[in-house]
Design brief:
The complex is a heterodimer of chains A (140) and B (272). Chain A has 140 residues and is α+β, with helices and mostly antiparallel strands. Helix content of chain A is 29%, strand content 39%. Chain A folds into two domains: 36 residues; 94 residues, Immunoglobulins (Immunoglobulin-like). The chains are: A alpha+beta (140), B alpha+beta (272).
């Protein structure tokens, strides 16, 4: 009778311990699985040039990952800031494929960029990262 | 007291086993997440860095070709190219293998006027990456131009000598790269030397040229080349058209002369 009791108690304890460990394991498993990193900043080469003759600021994709058309570009000319999406200033041929790809240019028409401080930033909203940021002083 | 010990002993063993199982499980989960999430990101970044390195190395090859073309003397320059990327430590994945080829008659330049057509078959150099995660890129040296290509798109990274004089006369230097037999293909992982040797040059004057056609796979890059500010600011009227196997530039109005210089360069990939 005593032996049977001990066996029952041992089995019960083992089951309780197994239950607790499975529950703990599940909690750890779920919590680790949900720690996914935010997407990396895309590896891409972008070159910006300023055409003082035609008052254009050109941002060109020079190789690397294709980018979405909702990539944000911020241009500040002497403290006046303008934000827009890549798709707003790509030509129609470039927009047809739905991405910003190699050799495609964003041509931003500015009013007057002579003797101005220009700050250009290309921002990827998906990864919440700045792909490129640079400043120019024209007319120097 | 003895009875209590007897009851507790098996429990200790179970707890230890469970703790070990839990610990191993945790290690497996963490390793799995690193393998499936972080390792691809690291490999992609590594491949992107390698493409930057290759871009720099190809710009050095272009520069060397330009120097050999300018000095026009029996001289040679070697540039080292890195093919492929090494694998990630510990996880042991991410090794890639790239290819470098010297191709025969891949590009044809045709210049014609009202009476004659002149053909120049040119050898090219092509590097092709075989990346696992980063976008595949090709660097091509064609007729003295350095072209970057990604799938069907291409851009011009360096142009051959091209100038306009007297508003309508064009000067163009093109480079024909011929590979030494048996030393024209390399593939794999490692650093390879790219040896270039000046052979000769030949000049041509083509009067009142009307067409310049280029047989190429990289139409966009050559369109960028011909739609350059040199030509836009010249007195020539021209139209650039994409044709099935390349591009065609048709000149109209007042026609000029084309001063064309073809520079012959011999190249080999592996030493010996």
């Amino acid at each position: 009778m005593e032996k049977t009791n001990i066996t029952v108690i041992e089995t019960f304890r083992t089951m309780v311990l197994l239950g607790i460990s499975i529950a703990l394991f599940s909690v750890i498993y779920l919590s680790v699985l949900t720690i996914y990193p935010s997407p990396n900043s895309p590896s891409v080469n972008i070159i910006c040039s300023v055409d003082e003759k035609n008052n254009n600021i050109t941002i060109e994709h020079r190789g690397g990952k294709k980018l979405d058309l909702d990539i944000e570009i911020s241009i500040t000319i002497d403290d006046v800031n303008d934000k827009f999406s890549v798709g707003d200033y790509l030509d129609n041929d470039s927009k047809n494929n739905g991405v910003w790809n190699l050799g495609e240019k964003v041509v931003y028409p500015a009013e007057n960029i002579t003797n101005k401080k220009i700050l250009v930033a290309v921002i990827d909203l998906q990864s919440n990262s700045v792909i490129m940021v640079l400043g120019f002083q024209t007319g120097e | 007291m003895l009875r209590i010990r007897k009851i507790l002993k098996p429990d200790y063993a179970v707890v230890r086993i469970i703790v070990i199982i839990l610990f191993i499980g945790l290690i497996i989960i963490v390793t799995g997440i690193i393998q499936s999430v972080y390792v691809p990101q690291w490999i992609e970044q590594k491949e992107a860095n390698h493409m930057h390195e290759v871009s720099y190395q190809f710009s050095q090859i272009k520069q060397s070709l330009d120097i050999l073309s300018v000095i026009e003397q029996k001289n040679a320059i070697s540039i080292y190219l890195t093919l492929g990327t090494s694998d990630i430590p510990i996880f042991g994945s991410g090794r890639t293998y790239d290819y470098l080829n010297i191709l025969k008659e891949k590009c044809v330049l045709e210049v014609s006027n009202d009476t004659d057509s002149y053909y120049f078959s040119l050898g090219t150099v092509k590097y092709t990456s075989k990346n696992s995660y980063f976008v595949d890129q090709s660097y091509i040296l064609e007729a003295g131009a350095l072209i970057l290509s990604q799938s069907k798109e291409s851009i011009l990274n360096g142009k051959p000598f091209f100038s306009v004089s007297n508003f309508t006369n064009l000067s163009l230097n093109i480079i024909n790269i011929s590979g030494l037999e048996g030393k024209t293909i390399a593939g794999g992982y490692g650093t390879y030397s790219f040896y270039m040797e000046y052979l000769s040059s030949c000049s041509y004057i083509i009067e009142s040229f009307k067409f310049i056609n280029i047989t190429t796979n990289y139409q966009n890059a050559w369109s960028i080349f011909f739609d350059s500010s040199n030509l836009r600011d010249s007195g020539l009227s021209y139209e650039i058209k994409n044709i099935s196997d390349g591009i065609s530039v048709e000149f109209s109005g007042s026609l000029g002369n084309l001063f064309l210089k073809v520079i012959e360069i011999s190249a080999q990939i592996t030493p010996g």
